[in-house]
Every structure is written in structure tokens, then in C-alpha cells.
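Training component of the fellowship. As part of building independent skills, the fellow (R.M.) carried out the full modelling exercise for a liganded target. The chosen ligand was adenine. The inputs are recorded below so that the supervisory panel can assess the work.
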Amino acid sequence: MEFDIKDPGLAAGGKLRIEWAERQMTVLRQIRARFEKEKPLAGVTIGACLHVTTETANLMLTLKAGGANAVLCASNPLSTQDEVAASLVKDYEIPVFAIKGEDSKTYYQHINQALDMKPNITMDDGADLISTLHSDRKDMLENVLGGTEETTTGVIRLKSMAKQGVLLFPVIAVNDAFTKHFFDNRYGTGQSTIDGILRATNILLAGKNFVVGGYGWCGRGLAMRAEGMGANVIITEVDPLKALEAVMDGYRVMPMVEAARIADIIVTITGDMHVLDAVHFNVMKDGCIVANSGHFNVEINIDALKDQSNGVRTIREFVEEYSMNDGRKIFLLAEGRLVNLSAAEGHPASVMDMSFANQALAAELMHTKGKDFERRVYSVPEDIDKEIARLKLESMDTHIDVLTAEQEKYLASWEMGT
Ligand code: ADE
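Fellow's submitted model of the complex:
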């Protein structure tokens, strides 16, 4: 079996951590038990380009239990948990191509090695596997039935490919499932971003001016959690609806160039590029901490930061101190890569449970129905979404009401008014 990981000797620690995550992944566990019996993915090769974490390991084990040949490469150069990669290879015989801290050349080499396994279904987090397939590796396209996509950024890229007519197979947008973005993007990103900042810096958040760039689901979650830690939260936005929502949620809203003047911490979480640029670095206070929790490391213009500085040193792991030409210091976390997965462990398992339950069921759907799909981006069907929510509630021992016959009739009628 081919693989490329840091050190197979790390497997024992990884195995324990995978088991720890499994305990929290109650929905995925039930899917895995069914997959073991029914083998719905027998003989299907699934190429996954995901963050190599304990939660992803449990997804890989679920796909394998369903009969799939699963191969995994990293969806980010800094998010790989090397001991997890080792355990997947040594204990579970799943080929992994991922090393934490790999350079860009190795990152794409690993994507290519995963594609060499001729996947029938692709599973992306950010669409790098699919974009490589559609550019440098067109030779592998004929094997592919369809794909799935985990994240907002990836879905945006894929929809733009479909709009331009260049997407060559159907893709299910897992991100668009309610049981994904309502929970993973909001509570997962909210908690894990704070976790990454605190592990990297060990700063006190109480009383700090904490700027959140972007008030999508991830930004909302982060703002909510930062406020809970006692920070003064400021939101920046370009969308008037989201900005209005932020105002009515009780936050101060202002342009980034104003927020940057008073910020102690700024986190970008927009999905767009250069949210922090030269004009913002110019006005930041001495000691300002900047981090990114959006998918790609494009949100902070690091070249502009370098241009205004005359030296960089790593003052703590994942903290680079930039000495600005005018004497100020600005601290960049995790090289501008997603701080929650670089400096911490990403979202907790109990929320990834629902995201990856969607992934497993989307792969099953693509295998069984993909032949009838068009070359476009599909949502996760409502019945899958509702079933995942139902199973999650059940595992939390939370029960809900059911409509009476009278109520159902009322909801289906129009005759009854005042
Ligand atoms: N994305 C965010 N958190 C993650 C995690 N723990 N595992 C995989 N992908 C993630």
C-alpha cells in the first residue's frame, strides 16, 4: 500500500484519539453499523481531500465499513494530525498522503497521489481535488461519477464552475445541509477558532476589542463565543443584511479600517481575499493579533504585512511577530492559515458528527443515484438532513412533539381564518 505520512511510529497515540472522537460521533456510528451490514459502497474508490483529523478518520472508517476503498489526502498543509495519519495507515490500512507543515509542492503532490488511485467519488473540503482533476489531471476524469463538497468556499468555487459550464460531474454540497452549516459553521467554528487563538497565545479575551471580519454562519458563531468570553466584539461586513443583523444582535459594526485602529485581535472569516491589507496594517495598534479562520490563507495579505516590516521572528509556536518599520509589532497566527485547525484540533467531534454523517450519506446517494444527476451542484435531500437531526437528538436523549392529526389538517388547509 502506498502512503506518505510523517512517521508510522506515531500510530498508537493516533488510534486512542480516533477512539475518543468516535465516542462523540453518535450519528456516524449508527451509519457505520448499517454500512457494515449492507456494504452500500462495495468496490467504490473514494478519494477524500479533507483535514486529516480524528473526526475525518472516523469518516474514513465508515466509508471503509461500507465497502469503499478510501484514500485520504490533506485539504490544508497545516491541519494534518500526524498521529492520526499514522494510525489510519498502520492500524486501518487506509492510504494517507498528508504531513503537517508540508510545502505547497508536496501538498499538490499528495493530491495527485490520491488521484492516482482512480477515485469514482471525490470528497472535497475547499474543492482542491476537483480543481486539480479539472486542470492538471483530466486523465482521471473518466473514472469519476460525482463528488461531495464540505465547505462554503468549496461550494462557491463549484457553483462558479457549474455556471461557467466547466464542471464535468455532479457534486453534492454537504455544506448546504442544515445539519451541517447551522451547527458546524456556527458552533464548531465559533468554539474551535477561540480554541486555536487561546492555544497559540494564551491571552485573556475579557475586555479586549475583538474584531470579526464577516458575519456569515462562521462569523456569527465566533462573535457569539468571543462575547461569551467577555470580549468587546466588533463586526465588519460588506452585506447590508448581515451588517444589520449584527447591529441588532448587539454588536458594533464599522468598516475594517476603523475597526483596525482599535482592535486587540482581528479574525478574518469571510471567504474573500485581502480582508486585511496594507491600509489596515498601517493603522493597527502596537501588539495587535491577526488571525484567519476562513478556508484559504488569502484573507490576510501577508505580502503587504512583510512590505511594511523589517523582520519576523517566531515568538511562540504559531505566533509570528512582525516588526513594523515604525516600531510597532503585529502578531500573525498560524501563517494566516485557518487558526482553528492549525493551532488547535478543528471542530469538536460531536459537531463534525453531523457534517460527516452528511458526507457518508451523500457518498451513498452519489453511488446509487449519481448516474441520473446532471453536471451541477446539488443540495443534500431534505429527508437525509431531517434524519440526521432526528438521530442526533435521539442520541442526546432529547425528545420532541409530533403534530396531531388535527394540526396536520390545519396546516394543510386554507379555509380556517379568524
Ligand atoms: N473542519 C473543521 N473542523 C474539522 C475537524 N475537526 N475535522 C475535519 N474537518 C474539520
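The panel noted the following from the submitted structure. Residues 50-51, 53, 55-56, 188, 192, 341, 346-347, 352 surround adenine (CB under 6 Å). The longest strand covers residues 309-316.
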